[in-house]
Amino acid sequence: YKTHHYKTHHYKTHHYKNHHYKNIQIKRICLTTSMIVASMSLVACNNNDNDSNDPKPQQIATNTNLNFTILETSDLHNNVMSYDYYKLTEDKSFGLERTATLIDNARSESANNILLDNGDTIQGSALGDYQATVSPVKCDETLGIYKVMNDLKYDAGTIGNHEFNYGLNYLNQITGSQFNVDGITASASACKGPDFPLVLSNVISARNNQPLFKPYKIITKTFTATTPDGKTVTVPLKIGIIGFTTPGIMQWDKKWLDGKVTTAGAKEMAEKYVPQMKTEGADVIVALSHGGIDTSPYSPTMENASWHLSQVAGIDAILMGHTHQVFPDASSKDTRLDQASIDKVNGLLNNVPAVMPSFWGKGLGVIKLNLTFDGKKWVVNKNNTKVEVRTIQNADKTFVAANPRVARLIQAEHNATINYVKTPIGTSDFSMTSYFADVGDVSAIQVVNQAQANYISDYINANLPQYKNIPVLSVSAPFKSGFAGGSDYTDVAQGNIAINNAADLYLYPNTVFAVKIQGSDIKKWLENSAKRFNQINPSLTTPQALISTFPGYNFDMFTSADVQYEIDVTKPIGSRIQNLTYKGKPIEDNAPFIIATNNYRASGLKEYYNINSSNVVESPDANRDVLINYIKATKNLSLTNNGSSRSWRFVKVKTAGPVTFKSSANKIDFAQKAGLTNISVVNNDDGSNKGLADYAIDLSK
User: Fold this and answer.
1) Regarding beta strands 89-90 and 83-84, do their DSSP bridges make them parallel or antiparallel, or are they unpaired?
2) Whether 427 contacts 387, CB under 8 Å
3) Positions in the chain short of pLDDT 50
4) 3-state secondary structure of 512
5) Are 30 and 37 in contact (CB under 8 A)?
6) Rounded to an integer, what distance in angstroms lies between the CA atom of residue 341 and that of residue 219?
7) 111: Cα separation from own chain's centroid
8) What one-character DSSP code corresponds to residue 122?
9) Residue 656 in 3-state DSSP?
10) pTM, rounded to two decimals
11) How far apart are alpha carbons 289 and 293 in whole angstroms?
12) Side-chain half-sphere of 454: how many Cα atoms within 13 Å?
């Protein structure tokens, strides 16, 4: 038996399913020993096996009351430090080092606690990539984030979809497992994994039809409770932990998993194992569901099965993840949560306590369970149970302090990762900038579109043959367009391209989505993007500002020779897109297209664009990672192939007065390099003290 000592001086004992001593064996050992030295025998037996400490049910007084707290992290994505490796700067808005402070605070409130992780733990940051692919951890080494989690005394965790991104060999090693699957070389002993158990019930080895990980774990915790007469007593509580991940792994990581593992439905596995856990003595059962909330009809392959799990008898609490949301959230505008079976205020799914704590360590899920012993078993009192998400951001918009232990534990890996992201992944013979993206420069946008389109095309060819004859296009926007001043522009210099440059090219932590739309929707999409421009009156002799308050990050554009269109800024909003063609022919209204974009844009098409789209691909991969991989594969970017394919132009119009816009000061050379010969400098200081200059565009050219 493995025992970890808590700072609260409570011991926790992990009882593995196949390693229980039978009660009769314990009794025989104790009886034999007691014949020799009675007083010593009881102490020896009690210390050697925590089960012998467990009072028999009749020894716990009826109506004894117990409160204990379940703490959850989820979707950490290897963001241990509050540090953006792409921007090479601290970012206090995320990081396990700050969640650790919330954990300490919660434990100080309640010594009766259990800390669990819901997966998507090892992948998602440059630190994760570095330890997996650049300088892989050795068999006798502990993965950096697991070192920290060991120090924080996690009790158990499950496996998310992103745990499979680096392949089964790597996952087998760093989790200290011995997978019985094809392609894994059997070894005499497992490598070093985390100190806490990892459970997963619904990923099955194709070789032996058994779960890849232990499907569940029953953990005995010694907690304090209150008897009916007000006395404080210590009691054992057996907490069953069962894990589920999203079956989408079979598509997203097909190259690693196809033919080696299969997935089973979360609900089916719960119905199989929960009664088994009860038979083995679990007093409380917690489901670690790496999935969100979906109330549509159940399918064994559905991505977000947590709501359906809440209907399985015997599950007392559900810890959720995967969708990076916060639950409960009284202010949520997600209409899927507005139904009687979901309490988004108090955190209940079909009256079962449930929580999801955001992502990247931004929050800590907290479920405070209240239990009463009814004479035979512990009963959860739903009315006295509280569910909440505690965030690392304070009410005054500051952030909680980082736990200094974390930085000390991870310092070597952190420093090595910083050096890694400075390493070139390719070269470019041109500068990629967004200084003049509003007026036609695509040097910082085309490569993003190429990466997205390439990713979606490959995905469709591998997984969705029904879409293979539909054209795949991509849109992206100039994410940095001067809102915060002259330094708020993308600027990746000609020469070597390093990993951290990807943040300049793709600012946001979005994931790649693809939507199926029709030709008429493309025009709607572009009309919305054209809100970036004010309506220009050609007869005015006074200066007119070209750029409106519409955000630059919403100014989506194509950058493909196949798509051509013009924007007439003299027309009102909604009627500006002219001469829209695909491969030289007008786009037919009902012609099907697949558009590669991001999750942010795809989710808003109906509300903001009046487009009824269907999601074809909802990828778990970040746009930024897809971009990095594309640059690595391309190696040498050129202006001809990757930075000059402009799909749109302004309709030519002669104006009586100047049409002006702002950009960073002293950058006219970049406009000229992009072939924008109709741009001139009005002045190199617009007087805002933000490093901005005034430029003019001649719309007649």
Assistant:
1) antiparallel
2) no
3) 1-58
4) strand
5) no
6) 30
7) 30
8) S
9) coil
10) 0.75
11) 10
12) 17
